[in-house]
Design a protein that fits this description.
Radius of gyration: 25 Å
Oligomer: single chain
Helix content: 25-40%
Order of helices and strands: EHHEHEEEHEEHEEEHHHHEHEEHEHHHEE
Structural class: alpha/beta
Strand order of the largest sheet: 5-6-3-4-8-7-11-12-13-14-15-16
């Protein structure tokens, strides 16, 4: 018996599906997630146009495979979406450019120590509105980051190519809004084997409210770095393997530390973690030197008429922030460099040789529920206003753009230990708003002199975030919760 698939309903369905496929390709570009359903649509269109009759069993199998391919497309498209980029809330447009800096005082630690240390800086700044300037993609398809990220996660190389289809709010090489400056400057460091744009939503929000943000690449310990010459440097695989092995050796010690609530025992455990993490300590030294070098170049950039930031940097108002190991770097530099006015660590455990030292600038520790209290030995010894914000139902990567870009990672929480959770169940858009509001409010207080009222009231707006504060009356160890 044969079953005719040439029916009015099938014809209409095939035509609609192919039309949608063509429109998607024109408006959005090629996405690998759409390939299975696209092939299915083409197959059914051929069958429809050719008036092909299939045997009934083959017809059933065809529809079953078609349904599976469409299901696969839906899961991957929703889990790894090409999102509509969130608008920044501030009054300023955002420009972006790339700057290369060379530190002639240091040789490159990696690449067999050949040549001086070279850094690329992604800069974002308040810009003049110009409709003729192109918007920046989230990732450059030629910067190597999408491929390196896939390799890092042991996935096929094409998995994250769709990220280059996403357009941000930043305009490439737009003219800076010099008449409104100079602007306070914030220096950002990505996570270990992260990338300079992994907090782009947050960075654009800050810039839209009148900040310049410089995101430092840390070559060979970031996923990939593209220099203005076009040369791409990916992470050092041998160093990466050694770092992972070190993490595994200290894993049980870190877990014990996170579960400990007695401060003297916690300090003892943290000291052991630091002593057993020499590679992390070496990396922190490199990243600290990178950051301090960039700080030292701010006046040079400000005085260079060929630089986009010419005469626009207020280098007397410098703040640091970073995610994960970048947050660790922000803490370390804030402890030793008196040019820093305020800093924020987003979920980074504090390593380094400065164990026992105190922070003397206003500082905020933001924690996921996976790492609650991880920097209490530093928070409890601060000698200025200090804040500890713990956000419920979060994983480590909820403090990055991954909250919006990779909701599929939420599925992994059912198979991960709590301390290894990448994304928690918190709504991604809400987490982005929460992070933006806390960080913007903090820097507005300590770099722009705004009143603390808004910062103090954020816990009412976001009850899932518990904020503790150590007052600048630290001699009396005043602690408050909000």
């Amino acid at each position: 018996m044969f079953f005719s698939v040439h029916s009015v309903g099938t014809s209409i369905l095939s035509i609609i599906t192919v039309t949608v496929m063509i429109l998607q390709f024109i408006l959005e570009g090629y996405r690998w997630q759409m390939l299975p359903s696209n092939l299915t649509a083409c197959l059914f269109l051929i069958v429809t146009i050719g008036k092909i009759n299939w045997p009934h069993p083959l017809f059933v199998v065809g529809w079953l495979l078609g349904g599976l391919s469409i299901g696969f497309t839906l899961i991957t498209a929703l889990g790894l979406p090409v999102i509509r980029w969130p608008k920044a809330s501030g009054p300023y447009s955002v420009g972006t450019t790339t700057i290369e800096l060379t530190d002639g005082s240091r040789n490159e630690t990696f690449a067999n120590g050949k040549g001086p240390r070279r850094l690329t800086i992604e800069a974002w700044y308040p810009a003049l509105r110009d409709l003729n300037v192109n918007r920046a993609s989230y990732l450059d398809p030629h910067d190597g980051i999408a491929r390196a990220l896939a390799k890092f996660l042991n996935l096929p190389s094409f998995v994250f190519t769709h990220l280059s289809l996403i357009k941000t709010n930043s305009f490439i090489d737009a003219k800076i809004l010099r008449k409104e400056g100079p602007f306070p400057v914030l220096i950002y460091s990505h996570g270990f084997y992260g990338y300079t744009k992994q907090n782009t939503v947050l960075i654009e929000e800050l810039v839209s409210h009148g900040y310049i943000v410089l995101s430092i690449s840390h070559p060979y310990e970031s996923l990939a770095v593209k220099f203005p010459s076009g040369r791409v440097v990916t992470y050092d695989e041998e160093w990466f393997i050694q770092s992972i092995e070190e993490d595994q050796r200290t894993k049980s010690l870190v877990n014990h530390y996170l579960k400990c609530h007695e401060m003297k025992e916690k300090e003892k455990l943290l000291k052991q973690i630091v002593e057993n993490s020499p590679l992390a300590g070496k990396s922190l030294t490199i990243w600290t030197e990178d950051t301090r070098f960039v700080i030292g170049q701010l006046q040079v950039l400000n005085d260079d008429p060929h630089c986009r930031l010419y005469q626009s940097i207020d280098y007397t108002k410098i703040g640091l922030f970073g995610f994960s190991f970048g947050g660790t770097t922000a803490t370390q530099v804030s402890m030793i460099d008196d040019r820093i006015r305020a800093g924020i660590d987003m979920d980074g455990l504090q390593y380094g040789k400065l164990f026992g030292h105190s922070l003397s600038v206003p500082f905020m520790f933001m924690e996921s529920s996976s790492f609650k209290g991880q920097n209490d030995p530093y928070y409890c010894k601060t000698k200025n206003n200090a804040y500890r914000v713990n956000v419920k139902k979060t994983g480590h990567f909820n403090f990055t753009d991954f909250s919006l870009l990779m909701p599929i990672l939420k599925l992994f929480r059912f198979f991960e230990a709590k301390e290894n959770r990448r994304l928690g169940p918190i709504d991604g858009k809400r987490m982005i708003c929460l992070t933006n509001d806390y960080i913007l409010s903090f820097f507005n207080v300590y770099l722009k002199g705004e009143d603390k009222t808004k910062l103090m009231r954020l816990s009412n707006q976001y009850p899932e975030a518990k904020m503790d504060m150590r007052s600048d009356l630290y001699s009396s160890s005043k602690n408050e919760s909000y």
